[in-house]
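Worked example
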Amino acid sequence: MLVITATAMLAVGSPAQAALDDPAVAKDLAAEVRQGEKVRAIIELERGQNLADVAKTAEAASSKTKVISKAGSDGFIVATVDKPTLAELRTDSRVKAIYKDEVSKPTLDVSTRLIGSDRANRMGWTGQGSTIAILDTGIDRDHPFFAGRIVAEACFSSSDPDPYYLGEVVCPNGQPSQIGAGAADAETAKCVVNGVNKCYHGSHVAGIAAGKKAGTAPSNGVAPGAGILPIQVSTRFNGTICEQQELPAPCILSFTSDQMRALQHVEEVRAGLNVVAINMSIGGGPRYQVHCDGAPLEAEILRLKSAGVATVISSGNDGHDNGIVRPACISAAVAVGATDDHDAPAAFSNRGPLIDLFAPGVAINSALTGNTFGVLNGTSMAAPHVAGALALLRQAYPDLTGDQLVEKLRTTGKSIAYASGDTTVTTKRIDLLAALPPVPTASPRPTGTPATTPAATPTPTPTPTRTHRPDERFDPQPVPDTCKRGKATKPLTAKQWATEMHRKKGSLSDKTLLCYLSLAQNGSKVFPELTNAGSLGKAYKVLAPKSKTAKALLDRELLAAWLNYTHGVHNGSTKIHGSITLAKAIGLAERRRTTNGTSAQLRKSAGYLYKHANK
C-alpha cells in the first residue's frame, strides 16, 4: 500500500496509473524532476534484466537523458533523468527502484592502549590471515606503515560534465574503474589541489585499522598483521557542488554509485582474500532516528553480511545525541560513534540507540600521504578501530560468524552511558583485552595465499530483492567526516565564545563548535572530568556563568583558552606572555583547579588567562 500510494503521488507527466510492480521512486528525485530539473539517478533493475536494453529505453525517452554508466555494475545503471524519462521508467516492469545518485565528502598510540589492542598484539593477536577493505580516498602505496600489507587494489570513480558536478575520474588509468596494483594510489595528479593532496583520508583510516609500526610511526594500528584492500571511491569535482558542501573547488567527493560498485567488488573477491570487515568512513544526509533500511547500499551490505563480512560505518560528526546519518543508519551495518581519551562521547559524534559501538576518535595519530603522519579527529577515525578489532577476533575465533564477532565486541566492551533525547542510552566502547583469549591457541582458517591483485573483472552477481522506501532522502554530505583545528588569528573572549555557543547568534557553525569542544575536552583534565562542556548548551553555561565563584571564573577563562587553541589562534608552544607558553599557562591553571587550589590562586590563574590568552 505504501508503494502504491507513494508512487501515485510522485507521478510526473504520465497518465498511466501506478501498478503493483511499478518501481519505487525516491520522493526527493521526483520533486526535483517535477520542477523541470535533470537529476543524476541510480536506476536499479529487477533481477536478470539487461542493462543495455533499459539504457536504450531511457535514452529514447528524452533527448536530454544521458546514460552515464551501464558497465561493470551489478544490476543498475546511472543516468540523468528528466520528466519524460522518469514518466517512462516509473511504469517499466524491468526497473525496481530509482533514486538520486548523491555524493559524500570523504570520520594512535593513545587510542590503541585505550582499547587494549597494543597488548593484544604483543600476546600474538595481530589479525594475521584476514584482510580489511578500506573504501575511501585511496592509499599512499609506498608509505612505510603499509609495507608488504596491500594485498589487492581497486578504484571506482565517475566523471560527469554537468556544470553542477564537473566531475573527473581519479583512477590512475583515467577510466571509471581500475583493478590491480596501483589502482588505489592516492598520490595521483587528480588528488592534488593547489599543491595539497586531498586524498589523505584513506591512508589515515587504513593506518588506524592495520598499520604496522615502521620508521617514525607512533605505534601499530589495531591489526598490524592483517592485509589491506584499499578501494578508491572518490571523484574530483570542479562544479558548484563544492560550494554547496562549503568547500573550495576542486573538491574530493564520492558518488553513492561508486560506493555500490566497490561493495560489489568486495563481494566478488572477499573469499580469496579472506575479507573480514569493510571500513566506510563515509556519511551524510539528514538525521535518522530509526533505521533507514531500503536505502542504497543496503542490498550489498546484506549480501556481505550473509557471507560473514561486516560493513563498519562511521556515524557522522553532526553532534546529534539521538540520531545518525546514512549509510550507518542501515541496520545491517555496524554503526560506530567516537569517544575521547576520557571515554566520554565526543561532542561532535552522532550517537543514540542506533549506534552499535563506540571507539576512540579524538586526536588519532596515523598515516597521511607523503609518507607522513598526522592527527585527525572524527567518527571516521573511530570506525577503523572496530574494523581492525574484527580482524583480531577472526584470528582468535575462526569458527564464529561475522555477526558473532560483532556481538562479542558488544558484550565485552566498556559501558558508556550518556543522555540521548529524553532518555539514557548505554553503548559499549570496544575493549579487546576483554574480548580476546589471553594467548593465541587457534590458527587462522586456511584461505590460500591472496593474490597480489584480484583475477580479471568479476562476473556480476544478481542483486537480491530490495524494497526501496520512496520517501528516503539522500542529501550530499561531507566525506571524510572529520574535524580539525581552525586557522584563526585573533582570540575571542569568554563572552564572545558564549555568543558563538548561542545558536544562530555566532559566526561559527554548530558542527565546528562541537568539534572544538571535543578537542578541548580530550586535552583537558578539567573538562569533562570536573566540568562537562560537551554540548553547546553546557559550554554556554561555563562561558557565561551565573556564579561568580573562583572555580566558575577559572572554568570560564580556561574553556575560552582551550577554544582559542582549537580555533587555531594559539599553539601549545605559543608564548602568550614573556617566556610563558599557552601549554604552561593552561597546565598551571588546571593543576590548581584539580588539586583544590585556594580561591586566590584560582582567581589569579583566571585573570592571567583572560589577559594573555583570551583577549
Remarks:
- Confidence is low (pLDDT under 50) at residues 1-20, 442-478.
- The longest helix spans residues 256-273.
- The chain is about 30% helix and 20% strand.
